[in-house]
Amino acid sequence: MEDAMDAVKEAVAGEADTAKVAVNLSASRDKKGGKGLFPRVPTGSPSADRYEPIVLSSTASLYTFTIIHPNPKTGLQPYALIYADFAEDTRVFGRLELAPDERPSIGMQLRVVCREDAGDPDTHYCFEPLRGNDQ
Predict the structure, then answer these.
(1) 5 CB contacts (<8 Å, ≥6 apart)?
(2) For the chain, which has fewer Cβ within 10 Å, the N-terminal or C-terminal residue?
(3) Mean pLDDT of 8-37
(4) What's the pTM?
(5) pLDDT score of 5
(6) CB contact at 8 A, 79 and 100
(7) Cis before 72? omega within 30
(8) C-alpha distances in angstroms, 93 versus 10, 65, 107, 125?
């Protein structure tokens, strides 16, 4: 069991060292109501005809959050899970990565990022605070 926990700690530590790039997520918009939906509705879905594909903007606003406190035995630090609102009337769930001294606040501006080596950004994304030089 300790070997499994050590592997998780190493993987999480490795993620922090990997460079991240800003990404735009793929979503869908309801043709009638205009509301966005993430993730994008697959083309093979029975309801695919109701939606059109869209690409979300690169920034969002923090709608709400919760802080997860892992069991102390894991050695993992607390982290934030959030809902973020995009200008395209789409709300997206994800993880917010913060520096140890940062705290989330409702309404803060965020950007979507993905580790450079993560593959598909629509499944390997996270959020981070938008800083002055990120705009």
Answers:
(1) 73, 74, 75
(2) N
(3) 77
(4) 0.80
(5) 41
(6) no
(7) no
(8) 25, 9, 15, 10
Neighbours of 78 (CB within 10 A): 9
Q: What is the mean pLDDT of the chain?
A: 86
Q: Are 29 and 86 in contact (CB under 8 A)?
A: no
**Is 93 strand, coil or helix?**
strand
| String of DSSP letters for 26-80 | EEEEETTT--EESSPPPTTSTTGGGEEEEE--SEEEEEEEEEE---GGG-PPPEE
Cα(49)–Cα(12) distance, integer angstroms: 40
What is the token pair recorded at 47?
């309801």
Q: Does an H or E element contain 9, and which? A: helix 2-17
pLDDT at 65 over 60: yes
